[in-house]
Amino acid sequence: MPRASWRGYLRLSLVSCPIYLSPATARTKPIRLHQVWRAAPAEDGGDLEDQVGGQDVSERPASRLTPDYVEDQAERARPATRITLRPHDRSTGEEVEKEEVVRGYEYDRGHYVTFTPDELKALDLESSKVIDLEMFVPRGEVDPVYFNSPYYLYPDGQMAIAAIRVIGAAMADAGVVGIGRLTMSRRERMVMVDPRGTGMVLITLRTADEVRAPQFGKADGTIDPEMLAIARAIIGQRLGKFDPSRFRDRYQESLRELIEAKMKGLPIKGREISTPAPVIDLMAALKRSLGQEPPAAKGAKANKRAKAAPDRRQRALLLPVSGGRETKEKSATEPATVATGRRKKA
User: Fold this and answer.
1) Rounded distance, CA 60 to CA 65, Å?
2) How many domains does the structure of the chain reveal?
3) Which of 125, 175, 219, 260 is most open to solvent, judged by the fewest CB atoms within 10 Å of its CB?
4) What is the rounded CA–CA span in Å between residue 86 and residue 100?
5) Residue 160 in contact with residue 12, Cβ under 8 Å?
6) Does some domain include residue 270?
7) In this structure, is residue 9 part of a structural domain?
8) Residue range 291-303: average pLDDT?
């Protein structure tokens, strides 16, 4: 059973079922670079003396004192030590006990109003325990720019499985997602609920105030049809199936190699990053790009398979529904048609 980060109820009108949420993503463990303290070497160089064959560092020939050697000796003379950050009074510098730290709001410079845990608890809303599916919209109508954090929504108990399957099957049949509210970590957010098998995916949504309006410039004139055809050909040769396992964090890999090289005392080679030249002749650049692309055989085959393959995401939750196939297809496409018509009028 996945670890629950929130427990409560999912409600559709008068139907409520117990659920719990578990994060749908996991943060990969990055290489952490800590803040450390390394005292600056003394100006007289007394702490950098290294008796090598009875000869001090200061007496060795200048040609043999490479920067790497001096840095290495400095690190040996003054080892780096980890620092810690502790809560303290800004005015006096006196350290503060963790138990004495409370929540407060600065209403004026240097003046705070503080709150007890009970006072903050009294602010809890119904959405702290119940996700009420207030409305449904076509799946493609929610702009991904509003997506925040995804969770898996699991039925909490055997009795809740039937309710989740029925609600999910109805949503999949209509091609819609549910919109509701959820309070977590003292923030009430809109959420989007999308059926997945015997459970659902819940994605917290950003508010309108959190999303900036785009400020794209206006384009004058029409697009050259030949340029458009070449760009489409390049895209067609790069078509493939999305596989997130193919992508890795190359920066973290390089950082790991740097750490190993430093620990082994190996020479460190800098990596040159080439800056792309500005495009002066767009048509010529497109034609050169098309000539450098690999054959599209594999991409075309993958694209045909992708088009032929049905959507298997909702396969496990489809339940027998009265009515023919034609009725189902019509109900699934109606919301999208209405939404399109509204946008045209606007």
Assistant:
1) 7
2) 1
3) 219
4) 13
5) no
6) no
7) yes
8) 61
- Angle of CA points 274, 275, 281, to nearest 5°: 125
Give the integer Cα–Cα distance in Å for 204 and 190.
Answer: 6
Residues of 294-313 as b/e, b for ≥16 C-beta within 10 angstroms? eeeeebeeeeeeeeeeeeee
Whether residue 90 contacts residue 42, with contact meaning beta carbons closer than 8 Å, is answered with no
Q: What is the pLDDT of residues 9-58, one digit of tens each?
A: 999 888 888 999 998 888 777 777 777 777 776 655 444 444 444 444 44
Alpha-carbon distance of 345 to 341, in angstroms, equals: 6
Summarize pLDDT for 114-166 with one digit per residue, the tens: 888 888 888 888 888 999 999 999 989 999 999 999 999 999 988 899 999 99
pLDDT band at residue 304 under the 50/70/90 scheme: low
Amino acid letter at 117?
Answer: P
Residue 139 tokens read as 């799946």
Specify the pTM. 0.61
Res. 318: pLDDT tops 50:
no
Tell me the sheet residues that pair with 28.
Answer: none
Range of the domain at 180: 1-24+104-210+311-346
Number of Cβ atoms within 10 Å of the Cβ of 155: 20
